[in-house]
Amino acid sequence: EMLDALNSIEPAIAALAAVRGETEDWDRLEDLVDQSERLVDHPDDFNRLALLFHNAIADAAGNRVLQATLASLGQVQSTHYRDRGSAESARAAVDGHRRLLAVLRRGDAEVARDEMSKHMGAVRQQLQIG
Question: What pTM did the predictor assign?
């Protein structure tokens, strides 16, 4: 259910962020990806940064309702990711986050929507959820 909800809102968030985000937003995302890459073997720290990455995309989107919705799922996400995640899934997430960032920087809403959908599908597969 959690990933179903995320699959509904995160692509929309990414599409908005692509057209509303600014250089500072992308720099913040890049910093979060760099930090998380160094912590793939530390699940709690990695998960915190991965969630911050997604929340930072919501911040760039500038829609408070979507930000609040995503934030409300954070606790459930953290538990799932901690219980089912691994260094391998963390490395895959870092790669996905780098691809997302590249797409967001280009400013194409539909490509960002598609890339986020792919990322969420990969997360579902990596964590063997659903």
Answer: 0.90
How far apart, in whole angstroms, are the C-alpha atoms of residue 80 and residue 50? Answer: 13
Residue-wise over 60-89: b if at least 16 C-beta within 10 A, else e? bbebeebbebbeebeeebbebbeeebeeeb
Contact 130, 3 (CB under 8 A): yes
Helices 109-126 and 2-20: crossing angle in degrees, nearest 10, is 150
Residue 78: pLDDT band (50, 70, 90) is low
pLDDT at 130 > cutoff 50: no
Count of Cβ atoms closer than 10 Å to residue 51 Cβ: 20
Residue 124 and residue 2 in contact, taking contact as beta carbons nearer than 8 Å: no
* 127 CB-near residues (< 8 Å, 6+ apart): 80, 81, 84, 85, 89
